[in-house]
């Protein structure tokens, strides 16, 4: 009963992710198939890796000369933002018990956004609410990947430009966050820092410096008490 209530409360919050992840996952599955990887490999990657943009990049790693050091560094750079997500989730995940390992594993951009902005109803267990948001989002990605893999075996596709769907989803999430928040300073700081770091460090190396810059500026703008409150609410990104 507790789990059913949590699932029913969590599902409506994940509908936008369902729409986005189905298309993103399908595009990923089609791309994997176009490189010679079967549906089984696609599903396995989405189940175990579940890294979104890093999975798209991994297609290049899988189809080129194996270089583990380069693969490690590139994946770290692409997903470095999760270090900052993790810091801001300390208090939210503090008392989640046996659910904590999966909550940590399944934390992606979209799940982070929902958990930070959505509140569980008073009669719903908060931990299970967060768990079902996480597992639903993960499931959407796996199902979308599987569908894309199957489609790739049946129909020939021109895969040029398919990887842009991930960028499109990030833009949509940013716009939704902008509309839902009255204070736009963090968003503006994020844009300015990202653009400056892009100019200074280039497109292949700007992610980590921009994240550090954004975090440093936001921390300097807030008093210790305000910073602790925002970290708990997931507003420092």
What can you tell me about this protein's structure?
With 237 residues, the protein is mostly helical. It has 2 domains: 2-163, no CATH class; 181-237. Helix content is 74%, strand content 0%. The chain has helices at 2-34, 39-48, 53-62, 68-78, 81-88, 100-105, 109-117, 126-154, 164-180, 185-201, 207-221, 224-233.
Radius of gyration: 19 Å
Q: What's the total helix number?
A: 12
Averaged pLDDT, please?
A: 83
Strand content: under 5%
The helix content, as a percent range, equals over 70%
The tally of domains stands at 2
The major beta sheet can be summarized as: none
Q: Total number of β-strand segments?
A: 0
């Amino acid at each position: 009963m507790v789990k059913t209530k949590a699932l029913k409360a969590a599902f409506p919050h994940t509908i936008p992710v369902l729409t986005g992840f189905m298309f993103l996952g399908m595009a990923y599955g089609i791309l994997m198939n176009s490189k010679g990887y079967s549906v089984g490999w696609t599903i396995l990657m989405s189940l175990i890796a579940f890294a979104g943009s890093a999975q798209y990049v991994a297609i290049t790693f899988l189809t080129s000369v194996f270089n583990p050091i380069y693969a490690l560094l590139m994946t770290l750079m692409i997903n470095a933002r999760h270090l900052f997500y993790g810091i801001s989730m300390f208090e939210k995940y503090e008392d989640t018990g046996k659910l904590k390992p999966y909550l940590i594993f399944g934390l992606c951009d979209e799940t982070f956004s929902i958990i930070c902005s959505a509140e569980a109803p008073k009669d719903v267990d908060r931990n299970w609410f967060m768990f079902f948001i996480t597992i639903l989002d993960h499931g959407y990605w796996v199902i979308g990947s599987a569908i894309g893999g199957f489609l790739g075996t049946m129909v020939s596709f021109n895969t040029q430009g398919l990887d842009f769907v991930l960028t499109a989803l990030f833009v949509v999430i940013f716009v939704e966050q902008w509309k839902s928040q009255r204070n736009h300073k963090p968003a503006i700081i994020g844009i300015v820092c990202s653009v400056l770091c892009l100019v200074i460090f280039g497109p292949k190396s700007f992610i980590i410096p921009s994240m550090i810059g954004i975090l440093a500026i936001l921390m300097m703008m807030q008093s210790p008490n305000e910073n602790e409150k925002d970290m708990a609410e997931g507003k420092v990104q």
